[in-house]
Amino acid sequence: MKKLFVCSGFYAGLLPFAATIVNAMRDENTYGIFMCSGKCDYRKAVIPNGDKYLFLNFPESKLKGLLYSIYPAALLKAITEVCKKNNIEVIHLLTEDSVLALHIHQLKRLAKVYYTVHDLFFHEQVYKNVLKKLMRTLLVKKRVTYLIKHTDNLVTCSADQYNYMKKWFVNQHIYFHNFPTLVTDVIKTGKKTMPELAGINNYILFFGQLEQYKGVDILYNAYINNADGFVKMPLVIAGKGYIYFDRDGTKEENVIFVNRYIDDEEIRQLFENAFCAVFPYISGTQSGILSLPYYFRVPSLVSDIPFFKQFSVENVTSISFSNEHPAQIMQKIRELENTDQQKITDAGMEFYERVYDQKSLRDQLSSAYAESPTFQTEAVS
Fold first, then answer.
1. Strand partners, 289
2. Contacts of 363 (CB under 8 A, 6+ apart)
3. Is the pLDDT of residue 231 over 60?
4. d(C-alpha 4, C-alpha 84), whole Å
5. How far apart are CA 216 and CA 334, in angstroms?
6. Distance between alpha carbon 211 and the CA centroid of its chain, in Å?
7. Is the residue at 378 inside a domain?
8. What does the alpha-carbon distance between residue 203 and residue 207 come to, in Å, rounded to a whole number?
9. Predicted confidence (pLDDT) per residue in 116-139, tens digit
10. Which residues contact 266 (CB under 8 A, 6 or more apart)?
11. Cα separation of 220 and 223, whole Å?
């Protein structure tokens, strides 16, 4: 079956998600169109596949970028040409792809369309200003909602989302597959060191885009207000985003913010030099974030929300804590210093090899593509 993967979203997390899927599905019938930026370049992440992949560059100027977001002419032209030239049977939109929302009917006249639902429920978020909130609402949230409603074949990696979608979208075809690892070949072999962390290791790490639902403020406040009196290892908060919480500069002697996009080639050493990784999320639907500490054998601490229970075994692969009692974070880290860390990291690696299996991922998606009705030209209402 000839399939075209469209990856027009490229912010942190989406690139390794999509690249892992494309690499797992790569064969002579796999085509891809990738929108790249200077920092998020799919050329570095996907395994070459002859002349079957097309890479487009996102406009550098803000005005041209806005115009593209309103009407993605180059992307639409590329999709149409690839589909007609190669008799594509399946188009799979992997990366939110909100720019294509108003063109979903056009795509459905070209081939069966599948849409990966990343967040059925939008997460808690604090915006830098009203304009940012308005742009996010109009250009992303409303468009994603439209795509979910008007795409016949919906795909998710979240068991909870899958159950909700099966219940709510009875006229659409709903598919589930395992979450792909975020550990791409570029990340595995990365040799770049972060200049902000020169000479610093054995630290507590938070890694990811800074957003309210990830609970970064909970970890930050637990750390700076720790009253146990033991000598603190540094806290590193690495990832781009709006710092939405109040900071206390008088208590930040050992706190390091790396508030920028973290290059894939920097991630390996970022994790390998950490004592542990902490993920104090207050909500979540689907994410492969735990694949990183599991693969690099770094002990991980996670909040006790239902989402993490899908991707960890409590106190076996990861150490669990309650966000309602944030002091637990530092207590658990102190306990970790006196436990058998190899036992935890070995369990994490075993879990990684079992859950993030590319063959299972390939089989699940191939089955989804084969099961759906051959062609549907009208949107589901």
1. none
2. none
3. no
4. 11
5. 19
6. 13
7. no
8. 12
9. 998 776 655 666 777 777 766 667
10. 190, 192, 193, 194
11. 5
Range of the domain at 205: 185-355
CA atoms within 13 A on the CB side of 365: 31
38 and 82 assigned to the same domain: yes
Convert the pLDDT of each residue in 299-341 to its tens digit: 999 998 877 777 677 767 889 998 889 889 999 999 898 888 9
CA 115/CA 120 separation, integer angstroms:
12
- Please determine, for residue 199, whether its predicted confidence score (pLDDT) is greater than 80: yes
Paired tokens of 77: 């032209």
Q: Among positive and negative, which fits the CA dihedral 354, 356, 358, 359?
A: positive
CA angle 350, 352, 358 (to 5 degrees): 120
Q: Which of 126, 131, 257, 274 shows the shortest CA–CA distance to 200? A: 274
- Compute CA distances 217 → 130, 147, 225, whole Å: 21, 32, 12
CA 250 from centroid of its chain's CA atoms: 34
Which of 253, 254, 182, 255 shows the shortest CA–CA distance to 217? 255
Output the CA–CA distances (angstroms, integers) from residue 358 to 28, 184, 229, 365, in the order listed: 18, 12, 45, 11
Contact 117, 139 (CB under 8 A): no
The whole-chain average pLDDT of the chain stands at 88
Give the helix, strand, coil percentages of the chain, each rounded to 5.
40, 15, 40
- Token pair of 354 as six digits: 């079992």
Q: Which residue, chain included where needed, has tokens 């999320």?
A: 281
**Count of domains forming the chain:** 2
380 in any annotated domain: no
